[in-house]
Structure formats: C-alpha cells, structure tokens
Amino acid sequence: MGEGWRFRLLGPLEVRHDGTVLPIAAAKQRVLIAVLALAGGEPVPAERLIECLWGDEPPTTARNTLKNYVLRLRRTFQVDGESGPLVTSTAGYRLDIAPDAVDVQRFQDAIKVARVKPDVASALLDEALALWHGQPLADVPSEVLHREVVPGLVEQRLAAREQRVDLGLNRGRHRELVDELLVLADENPLREGIWARLMLALYRSGRPAEALDAYRRAGDVLAEELGVDPGSELKQLHLAVLTNDPALTITESRTVVPRQLPAAIAHFVGRSAELAGLSVRLPATPLMVISAIAGTAGVGKTTLAVHWGHQHADRFPDGQLYVNLRGFGGTPVQPATAVRGFLTALGQPDLPTEPDDQFALYRSLLAERRMLVVLDNARDADQVRPLLPGTASCVVLVTSRDQLAGLVALDGAVPLTLDLFTYDEARDMLVRRLGDRVDQETVAVDELIAACARLPIALNIVAAQAVLNPTRPLAELAEELRDARRRLDVLGAVADVRTVFSWSYQALSDEAARVFRLLGRHPGPDIGRDAAADLAALDSDRTEAALAELTRAHLVTEHVPGRYAMHDLLRSYAADQAHALDDDLPAALRRVVDYYLHTAHAADRAMDPNRRLAQFDPPGPDTHPTPIPDAAAAMAWFDAEDLNLAAAQQLAVDHGWHGAVWQLAWEVSGYHLRRGRRHDRVAMWRAAADAAEQLGDPIVRGRVLRLLGRAYADVGRHEEAREQLELALAVAEQERDLEQQAHTHVTLAIAGERQAEYRQSLTHALRACQLFEEIDRPVWKADALNLAGWMSAKLGEYEATYDYCGESLAIYRDRGDTEAEATVLDSLALAYRLDGRHRESVDHYQQALVLFRRHGVTNEIAQALDNMARALVELGEREQARAAWQEALAVYRRQDDVRNAELIQQQLDSR
C-alpha cells in the first residue's frame, strides 16, 4: 500500500502520490496548492484563495479564473484513474488528506511535543528540522503568503534550532555546538539570545577570550543597526565571563537521579532460584509480579525485590523509584498520591493540578530512561496500572499478597510466586544472625524454626531477641515460645506466627508494649515522634525510649529519621492486642487527631499569618503540637504528614468527631492550594460538609458550604459550585451573618469569573464591598475592591477599575501588605493595557513583578510577564516583549504547566 498524498512546503513546493513526484509547472497552481495544503484539510473560502493568488488588486474575472485553476488542478491530481484529493464544499475548497500529509504540520506537531517531553525533545527536533529543504514556499509566487506565512515559519524554525542548542548545552555538548552557533549568529546578528548561547558555548569550551570577543561583536552590530546597547542577559553573561563565575562551568544537565530503594538487607539468605528467575525473565518482559502462596504476609516479597534491585543497580543508571502502596494492612495509597511522590523524587516540585496530567508527565519523564520502579504491597491491578511507565526501558517489580491476574493477563506481567523458606534457608539465616550458637544448640534451633513456620519475618524477630540476649541459651527462648503457644491456644502456621509475635511482644517493657499496641491503631501509614508521644500521652524522652526498644526488637522500623512504620502483619497483631486490652483507645485516638489538627493550625498560620482562624478550642494538656517556626518548615511538615492528615480526618468521621472533621479541612486547605491538590481539597471539604450537617451549627455549615463551593469551582464542577455557594449565602442571610455573606459574595464572584460571567461577578464583588464596609473589615474590603476592579477591566469599564483598585491599593499600602499590593498593581496594569495605555501598563507590571518576586509568587510572575509582553508589543518594543515571554515560558515549564506554556510558545511562534 502506498503512502498516499504528501505535500512539501518547507522549501520548493513538491507534491507526491505514492512516492511519485507530480510536476506542477504553472505558478498559479503552486499558489493554489500551497494555500490548500496549509489549511490542513479545512475548507478555504474562494475569497482567501483569490487574495493569495492576486493580492489586493484581483482582476474582475478572478472568481471565474479561480474555477478554471481548480478544474486544471483536479486534472493534475488525477492519477491512475483516481479523482484526487481536491474537494468542493459550500465553505470553499479543501484537500481531503491525512493530517500528517503536509510537512509544515509534521514540523509543527513535532516541536509542540518536544516542548512538553524533554526526554525525547532532541530526537523530535532533529526530525522536525530535517524536514526543511530551503526557504519555505521558495517557488510559490504569492506576496500574501510570503508576508503572512513565511516569516512565522522561519521564526518557528529558528526557535526549534535554539531549543535544540539549549538541550545540547545542558548536556555538555558545548564544543560541537560552537560552529553551529557561529553560523546562527551570522544569519541572525540582531538576535541577542544566539549571541548569549555562543558566548556560553565558547566559555565552556575553554575559549573565554573568544566569548568576550563575541560580546564585543554583538554590541557593535546592535549599536550600528538599532542604536542600542546589549540587553541585560548579554551584560550579565559578559560580567560572569569576566569574573569566571562558577555557575557557567556546569557542563551537564542537573537531572535528578532518585535512589528510593530501602536499605539493602544485611542478612539476606537463599532465594537463589527466584533471583535467577528475575534476572533471566525481566529483559524480555519488564514487568514482574512477586506474589505469595495463599496470601502469606511476611514471606519476604519486599526483601526479594529490594535485594535484587541493589544487586543490579548498575542496570538502572537513571535511578530507582519505590512506593509502599499499603494494599494490605491500612488505607491503600491512591495511584494519584503515589505518582505525586514519584514526580517530586524526579525533581518536579511544581506539578500539574490534574491527575491525568500528572500521570502523563510521569510517563514522559520515564521515557527512554533506564529505571527500576518497585510498587510494593499492591492491592489489585487497578492500583498498579496507572503507575506503569509507558516504555520498555524501565523495569517494574510489583509485590502483593494477591496474584494480580489482571496484570498477567492484560499487561504481560510475569508471575513469580514466593514460598516460605526451606529448612536450610531458615537455618542459614539464623547462622548469619547468631553465628556458632546455632551449631551449639541444634535441637533448640530446630524448634525455633518450626515455631516460626519458616516465615522470614518471624525468624527475624526471633533472631533479634536472641541477639539482644547473647548469654541466654536458645533452649530457654524455645521453652518460652512453647509456653506462649500453649497460653494462647493457637493452631496452624499463621497461629505459630502470631505466637512468635506474642513472644516478642511479651518481652517488651510495659511502656513499650503499650506504645506498640497504640501504634497498631494509628490511622496513617507511618508516624513521627511527636505524634507518637501524643498518641501514648508520654513525654518526648519516654516516647523515644519506647520507639528505640521497638526498633531493636524489629517490631517497628525507622524508615526515615524520626518517622516509624510497621509491617502490616505486625500492625494487625498490635491492633488486636490494643482491642483486647482496651488501653482507653478513644482517648488515645482523639489525642492523635488533636495533634494533627493543632499542628496543622500552627503550620497554616506560619504560611499565612493573616488567614482567618477556625473556631476551635486550644490544645488540651495532653496535646503538644510540633513547633513550626516558618513557612518552609510548615510546607515540610505538611508534605510529610499529607496522608496522615487525610487519615486523621477519616478517623474523626468514623468516631463522629464532627468539629475536628471540618476544622482539619480548614487547616489543610491552604496547603492543598499551594500544592495544587485541588481534588484532595474537594474530598476533605465534602467530608467537612457532612460533619457540618451533623453539628447543626449554621455558622459552621455556611462557612463549609462556601469553601466546598470554592473547591468545586477550582476543579471545574461549576453547577455543583453554584449550588453550594447559593446554599451558603442563604444560610448566612438567614443567620444575618454579614461577614459570611460578604465572603460568600467574594467566592461567588471568583466562581463566576471562571465562567466569564463578569457582570454577575462584579455585582457580587460590589455587594461584598458594602458588607465589609458595614462590619468595618478594611483589609477584606480591599480584597473585594480589587476583585471588582478586575471584573470591571474585563468588562471594559476602565475608569471604574482605576477607582476600585486605587482605593484598594491605598488600604494595602497603609498596612504595609506588599504581597496584596502586587495583586492590585497587576489588576491596574491589565486595565491600562486593555484601555490602550500601554506605557502605564508596563510600568505597573514592572512594579508588581518586583513584589511578586520578593514573595516568590511564581504563578503570578508568569501571568504578569505574559500580559506585560502584550503591552510591549503594542509599544513596538518587540525584543523586550520576546524576553518577557521567554521568561514566562521558563516559569511555566518549571511548574510543568503545559497548557500555559503552550499558549506562551504560540505567542512566540506567531511573532
């Protein structure tokens, strides 16, 4: 089957059908083909074709002549009796061709993908640039096309060449890029970015004198042609070269190489057949499911995966990713949560807000990388499947109690079933841990192995107890174990394991045993020292001593400094003991919920001291929140406790602690906003709304409905958002709560703006202003005034914007709130731009940017740069505009904001 129709426009025009070139001798036919091919299969009106064929002065017979040209072109396209791709419709004429039939479309598609897939960008750009065979439309005589189309294509090609150069510089290919950059500088002497790249490549190649000479030449050209000095980028680079700035010597990209595998097991034994099986099978099928016979926990699935990963670390130069999915023994980790952890480990601190975009970014980052991904303790195939890379260059190990037949059947996974230790493997493990004692007490060793049912986790606990008591005969340990088994009256292999746990547990001090029991009822996946102290109502020293004792006994693991986790089998056992002994569990669980609530409150205040306080009692005498000194410490605490906070809220739901449910949502909301966790925010506020209904407090209910409405608006669920906000407003009006009425009007304005309902949003903002005035809340009034100014600008009512924003600005400046001041300057700048007062717009954007940068508000920085660039274009300052757009593009790319980055790139390409 042939390749069909193909059109080349990036150079002299060429038309091929199934590989055969069709001769297009007539100049007007070439114009007609070019216009239709550029339309990408969309119909082109006759008026547009006439304009491109004859320009501004078409002949009076143009329409009839066009019909003749079309008729001749149909005949040209008739090959082997086929009618050809030219189609007539009521909308005009079009080519019925495949989307990739035109080289321009293939070129543009490739550079778009290259912008969002850095790992394959270089190859894509090479393919895109290889499509060029000279000046676009070189033999197509159309002044309109050469004026409107060709400059944009040439600019896109140059931008692609610059991006490819940047990729090469980031990978240390400076020496081989010098010649290409010299040519680019000669071809584009007024493009300062190319001179900067040339200077950098020369400097890194050990040629600083030539780098300085390049700066001199750039200055001469700019002065002669434009009468200007080099811009700030070139000047800063010139200074850096003169001072031998160490930052210039970076010769390779700072790609993050995660090493997330847990520590290697010091006393790993046996499993030689399984290890060999992994090594043999994985190259052919890079997905392996390590499961267990009859779902046995503690058989060593994780240990095997981690040991193999460390053995073969050299096979994975790009790193290893690891996550415990907690499919059994706790609340399972959602795939969206796991992928956020992976993206952070891969050096992506600012993530897309939508889960689908996060998964796409994850697959893009892993494309062409050689990495090991360990998905530990998976519940089912649905939990695993979204976390599978989209490339065969990575190896995935999945461990689970389940056989995960779906992954085997649909995803080509290879199953590996792990059994209990053999007797020899069990004995070998004890030899490695206990040395000569094993040979000296063979009967006791046999009894210990039998009691442990040859289960690795049980054997490890027994060995730990023996190591902690080096002078105690193993026979005594075996005798105690026999007694414990009789007392518990348990039978079978699992019962033997529980007996091992009970024996180890009973050897603990009373205080450590109590802490162990309570940890089994902790709702989250791990716990920090401070939370453990409040859970057990102990001071920090006693808590640390108990945790150290549990760690020595291998009943908990300090998986990161200061944070402790339990094997799910041990967690179940500990929870059973807590239930049996009753340990005043409700009080303990309430203490730990209060710990999370009050520490979240402290962290939220550290991030935003001006945020309104939730209404709840101060911490009780047994609650000791972790001190949070600043915003950075607050974000670090929230990052560590993210899953625990959600689990704490669910625990509060389960126990009917309705106040804590909505208060946790309030305190975590700011963190979710900063991290872009919009869907997590919806989940917490939905739980809060249910709790507020149970409380029966109209003030709380109105507040929660308002914030649930805002959360819905942020995820695009506009109907639900409006429903909740209207309910919130009705509650506030019924209670005559002016403050909540005002806040709800503000939220309704924001929600309306998301749907471009600017007039209605302005009404809400102005009503909020009136209410805040009545209750004497000047700062909140300033917020509403700025919102009203923004809506007025969107409506084209600029004088109103200047009035509203001027009053808002005065309030903020009086209070010294420079971050809020920046938002008003940004609103004024938008109004000035839309009003045609472009110089004032640029001035206000520059003032806002100074303040945004001071406060690190990166998303606002990018938006302000984009809008400022548009004003600069209107002023004719195109180079400054381009620099602003390039900076905005860099910010959006650092945030992995693909949509906005694409919009900025379109602005750059179109100019």
Report on the structure:
The radius of gyration is 34 Å and the shape is globular. A hairpin with a 2-residue loop joins strand 12 (557-560) and strand 13. By secondary structure, the chain is mainly alpha-helical. Residues 484-496 have low confidence and may be disordered. Strands 7-8-9-6-10 form a five-stranded parallel beta sheet, with helices on both faces. The chain has a three-stranded antiparallel beta sheet with strand order 1-2-3, with no helix packed on it. The protein has 42 helices and 13 strands.
Short key terms for the protein model shown above:
Arc Repressor Mutant, subunit A, single chain, 13 strands, Rossmann fold, Serine Threonine Protein Phosphatase 5, Tetratricopeptide repeat, mainly alpha, 911 residues, 3-stranded antiparallel β-sheet, 5-stranded parallel β-sheet
